[in-house]
Amino acid sequence: MKSSVIFSITLVIISSIIVSQFLQSENEISTYIENSVPYVGTEIPRTEGLDGSGIKVAVIDTGVDFNHPDLLGWGPDGKVIGGYNFIQTNQLPMDRNGHGTKVAGIIAADGSTLGVAPKAKILAYKVSEDGEGVSSELISGAIQKAIEDEADIINISLGVNRTNSKIDSAVNYALEKGIFVVTAAGNDGPELKTIGSPGRNFESLTVGATYNNMTSSLIATLEIDEKQYTAIPMVGAPKTDKPVTGKIIFGGFGKISDLENLDVKDSILIVERGSDVEGELLFFSIKEKNAADAGAKALIVYNSESGIFLGELIHEFSGPEYSPQIPVVSVDREEGLEIIEKLENDSNGIMNLFYNPDFIAHFSSRGPVSPFYMKPDMVAPGAYINTTQIGSSYNFTSGTSFAAPHVSGAAALLLQNNPELENHELKSLLVTTVKPVSNAYGKEFSIHESGSGRLDIASAYNAKLIISPTNFVINFSSDEKSIQKELQLKLIEKELGKIDVKFEGPEFITFEQKIKDNNLQTEFTISGEKYGEYEGKIFINHEKIKYTIPIIIHYTEGSISTYQENEKLFFEINHPDKWSFTKITITNSKNGNTETITATPDRKPSMKIYENSEYWIEAKIMSDGNTTDAFDLIKINSISEKTEVIELRNIPEKQIILIISIIVVVGIIGLIIRK
Known about the structure:
CATH class of the largest domain: Alpha Beta
Oligomer: single chain
Helix content: 10-25%
Number of helices: 12
Shape: globular
Number of domains: 4
Strand content: 25-35%
Strand order of the largest sheet: 10-9-16-12-13-14-15-11
Number of strands: 34
Distance between the termini: 6 Å
């Protein structure tokens, strides 16, 4: 009996821990408020002649300060015509944090500052009090309320760095109802694969951030022995009038004791972040001063852990008398250690810190989120934006949270100009009429970083051609080297007329195209065996507007083929070499549900399906001890959908707790009775 009681208590404790962890992971959604550091200032772009009149934009955030003079008024006659407070349901959605007010100002401020669409109306849905976190149920509830309130556009500048099915389902429902949804990519860059829900949603328009395209931002180049490295200027670092050149010397942690026996005069010094003494605060400003005093011309600080970072030279501990003397940049740990390994060969470096008119913000989250579609869709100004703040004030702010409302405001202008635009048409006008964004070396940022490019409101307004899809993925394999894709072209006004089509991509891919029945029919053919992932772009010129359609290209050694029989999917694995095992992941594009099965050469894999959808198939094929990827997709439209599938993730959290608790209690009672 004693052992049974002990066991029962242990079971209860473990169950409680599991439940609490589940709820915490499901509920926590961080808003992006203080994760970015401003570089440059900007004015909010706006299009002459359009002001957003008649358009309602829902802001799902920390509320909105509707007493601000640029956002004045609550109710039908005010700027903020409605909304709901999900935190304190008996109060109006007044913002006490500032995040939502900043977002609303970028969209529709109308006073001392002008938002992108100053005459648009705001619906404020308060789902967080302090901007630090909110449950998925509150966001989902706010989306549902925005639908009921007949919002035209929903802006969600919140997110998590993982998939959240509840939020994704709510976003999909809003899109089905004809509401245009804009989401922030997040602020977990510059690493790849850092976009979470709702930014990773397939159909919503996801926005990353650029530095200011109206003035300039400080960026850096670093070349050592003719190899280019990714470097981020530290905040407060002086720009260079001309490139700094010098021998690379390793200086430990940049202490005076590390440098006193080194000849670092006219060198570029590289040091490690932090200190070798536990608890010692060795600020970047101290490292910079020590390097400058020793005669170094520039300083590189590599990370003490994986990843890159943004450092600050000017801070509360640097003192008012401190002024940086030499350019300072940060690099990630891997590249820093690589540089140090070269030093035996007397490596020489070239560093330059200069102003560039446009650049992807280092904090902006990157894709990919899936091998089957692209995120982010585009980028917009999101650094050092001067916008409205609580308490009738204004403030400079940074983050993808403030890039997204630029696009929401732009969408309001386009909808005002043409209220008949459908979601996919509006998205097409915005994401295909972009401007390219280049890095410090003049090379365009990758699709995973910038999507199709940076928002260009004027081009979107003047555009008359709607293109569908706005981007796509091509899956080549060793047994399928020719792929056909069709783009639907719709002209808003007049006949299509003459268009010019051009493809830019890997030289081992040939491209052919023709126009038939207002459709652009394309064929891509690959040669050789250069397996891997590549990027390409189709450019369409029509009536002085250049449209951009980005393409992700997978070229895999093996392949997987999918076909349907009744309510089952069957899979066939092909590989030029003998394969032994395959792991297959199937994703339902409609709801994001995934299922994993395995296959061997003597066993034909299959999976039962329950609803019509496009299914994404990813296979990892093992052959001769090596694992290679393969991709396929299939669209199902023939399922009767009479079968209902109960999914745990769709059950409300309180009910989940109740169910688990009942199971635990019943189990304990059963054990006690048995004994």
